[in-house]
Write a structure and sequence with these properties.
Blueprint: H1 2-9, E1 17-21, E2 25-31, E3 35-45, E4 48-55, E5 73-79, E6 89-93, E7 96-102
């Protein structure tokens, strides 16, 4: 998990996040101001997760921009922890993205084989 934690720490100081861990999963809570569930895309490929979040520009015709400092796009690719499964669950509410990444079973999902003794016939 240290690679994910390091990658998050390397993000801009303008990016706010919490990283949590349980016995079964990781939870990344990431502020994506102005983004909606329809404007957020999360893609898992190989050992990374790509997050793209967009916000719409205010344009009601009554006001004009004098200064604009908020980004329109948040785009980041992060490494997944070694024990992370490839499935994720996402939720976006009020500009906050919650990304749940389950952990693979500790045994790696492998089926153990019974050891069989061979008789020495010679």
């Amino acid at each position: 998990m240290s690679t994910l934690r390091d990658a998050l720490r390397d993000l801009s100081d303008d990016v706010f996040f919490d990283l949590l861990e349980s016995d079964d999963a990781y939870l990344l809570v990431l502020d994506v101001p102005g983004a909606t569930p329809e404007s957020v895309s999360v893609t898992v490929a190989e050992e990374t997760v790509a997050i793209e979040a967009r916000r719409e520009k205010l344009d009601d015709g009554e006001y004009r921009y004098l200064e604009e400092n908020r980004p329109l796009l948040f785009d980041v690719e992060l490494p997944l922890p070694d024990d992370a499964a490839s499935e994720t669950a996402t939720a976006v509410e009020r500009g906050v993205l919650e990304l749940t990444v389950p952990k693979r079973p500790a045994d790696g999902g492998e089926t153990p084989l019974d050891a069989v003794e061979h008789e020495n016939t010679g």
